[in-house]
Write a structure and sequence with these properties.
This protein is of the alpha+beta class and about 220 residues long. The protein is built from 5 helices and 11 strands. Strand 5 and strand 6 form a beta hairpin.
Length: about 220
Amino acid sequence: MKPLSRPALLVPLLTAGLLSSCLPATTGPRMDDLRTVPDAAWQPLDLLNQSALPASRVLPLEDAARRAPLGSLIVGCQRVRAVYGECTHITRKVSEAALSEETGPIGTGARLRPLDSLKSRDLILVLDSGVRPQHWAAMNAEVARLQGAPYLLGGQVNAFDCATYQNALQRAMGLPEAVPYDPRWHAYLPLGALSAPGNTLLWAGVGPGVQPQGPGLP
């Protein structure tokens, strides 16, 4: 893995942007521009570039969270604009009521959070990254081992951001890393998991304040 994380890089990135206006374009969908399209016409890049979702996989957010299989990854998006887009977090469902994630630089380190914490999001993307029942024991063992691991602020050993934490769980299960390194941003962006080889979108859950244009929700 690359040694630097997003927080360590955002200051120089923002400074460079102010001086040269050369930051790459923000990535991913905009919550106010979401639309649904027929599944046969949809590709992952359509969500990144056109805010388009496959119609048959769009559910109310709580339904998508409930249907997410154990071990699935969940990308969280909301109307808080960050320099790299609105989809700024990735977590993993590890039980019917709990997520495991790295909580951020002002949090308490890697820990379990209630599944209901997803209700604060405007959009979630439930992804299959290859986890099956035979992987659960290794997943849970690594979750326990990394409990409290600090947020990666620049070069520490056994410290993570939200994406590299999920990559660590993938490796512990003998699976490929689920979040690729983005050379434009010099970071592991949560939304990169959407188009990573081997990952597939299972469900897109939209919050009550989000109204995609196109076919309605079930």
